[in-house]
Amino acid sequence: MQGAGALEKIRTDRLTVRRFTAADGDALHGYLSQPEAVRFEPYGVQTRLQCHELALDREGDEAFWAVCRAGDERLIGNLYLHRDDPRTYTLGYVFDPAQWGQGYATEAATALLDVCFRSWGAHRVIARCSPENTRSWRLLERLGMRREELPQLHDAYQYAVLEDEWSAGSVDRRVRRGLAGGPSR
């Protein structure tokens, strides 16, 4: 990703969005071992060993971001932001069900998308989710993304937001105000 390798951490009022480390395996297992957390993911419940392997893999993968509570630095979820072509990215996320409903996913994704559009030169960010995953598509709509039409054979919703839409403030301003700390190295 353009500039992504240099960026190690993004801080908001309540969160730290940082690179994964090999030490994150147990914390990953804390939520990836829960059926509710992975219900709509392309993989099933993960074992402790699988989570330690994932932590190692993600440590070197610029697309994966660990989301931690700022106070105790506890890992509560992860974001995925993959560069598909020079100016298009795909967003994904999984959070600990115990943390759902507190605005953490919205806050973390907003912070990362701000960096993506403002620093990395993204033109478009897309995300896909199951039509049954109401929490996910509502999150995407809170982020200012709009649902796109897909051929009827697809069993997923696709959402997108363009650079000019993001810059114009289509995302909820209350969320943006929570981005106090901004990026750090």
UniProtKB/TrEMBL annotation:
Keywords in alphabetical order: Transferase
Alphabetical list of Gene3D superfamilies matching this protein: 3.40.630.30
Any one GO molecular function term: acyltransferase activity, transferring groups other than amino-acyl groups
Protein name: GNAT family N-acetyltransferase
Record carries keyword Transferase: yes
InterPro entries, per database record: Acyl_CoA_acyltransferase (IPR016181), GNAT_dom (IPR000182), N-acetyltransferase (IPR051531)
Organism, scientific name: Cellulomonas humilata
Keyword Phosphoprotein tagged: no
Upper lineage: Bacteria, Bacillati, Actinomycetota, Actinomycetes, Micrococcales
Segments forming domain N-acetyltransferase: 15-164
